[in-house]
Amino acid sequence: LPLRFLGWSPSRKNPRLCGWCCERLPLGGAEVDIAVLFADVRNYTALVEQLPAPEAAALVNRFYQVATHALIDHDALIDKLLGDSVMALFIPGIAGPRYREMAVRAGEALLRGIGYGTPDGPLLPLGVGIHAGPAFVGNVGAEGVVDFTAIGDTVNVASRIQAQAAAGTILMSEAVYAAVADRYGEVATRTLTLKGKQEPVVVRELRPTGPT
After folding, report:
1. pTM for this one?
2. Burial class (CB in 10 A: 0-12, 13-18, 19+), 64
3. Which of 15, 49, 175, 180 has its CA 20 to 30 A from that of 57?
């Protein structure tokens, strides 16, 4: 008996989940500790200006394919695909208790999928930023236009960390690194000045070295 007949349909945030688990719930949510990943193509505008429109579209579609597979394989919710960037959420109830590690592993898989750490090199210049902490998670919107997303300082910090990640690198906050230090050992430290933050923010920089 097809599950669709029983009212089941895949979530557009992650097709392994039911749509009722996310976007079909009513407005509202709760504060949850999550990890947030942003990935962005560097110099995207200049890059696509040099390509015919069909080639530019094919390149972006390839980025989406790699990102979608890497994120879904690590139990993420794909919050947004925005032209040259992607935002993903790693929620304990979905990604498991090691959700912060899953976010980092997803970032590695994304960079490797684009070609970093491989003999052929990257298809696109891509940087990744990850932060973890409390955020409001749930459905927001009005008048029938509703989106399941995360809101709060944790999301903003993740986005701003990503903005300073060089192509081919993952920048993770200390909150994330603390959860993966045993896996990755000592990695390079950077101190960032982020918009809206009075104090500098310490991050760790990770570069994929090849297939795992």
Report:
1. 0.87
2. middle
3. 15
Cα dihedral angle (197, 203, 209, 212), rounded to 10 degrees? Answer: -100
Q: Which amino acid appears at position 70 of this protein? A: A
Between residues 4 and 45, the one the model is more confident about: 45
The confidence band for 9, taking pLDDT boundaries of 50, 70 and 90, is low
Structure tokens at 106: 């997803």
Query: How far is 107 from 35, CA to CA, in rounded Å?
Result: 12
For strands 85-90 and 170-173, give the pairing: unpaired
Residues in the chain: 212
**CA distances (Å), 70 to each of 99, 141, 179, in order?**
14, 28, 20
Q: Which amino acid is at 101?
A: E
CA-to-CA dists, residue 133 to 14, 30, 104, 110, 143, angstroms = 22, 13, 14, 22, 30
What does 79-143 look like in DSSP terms, one character per residue? EEEETTEEEEEE-HHHH-TTHHHHHHHHHHHHHHHHTTTSTT--SS-EEEEEEEEEEEEEEEEET
One-character DSSP codes across 13-47: S-TTSBGGGTTTSPSEEEEEEEEEEEEEETTHHHH
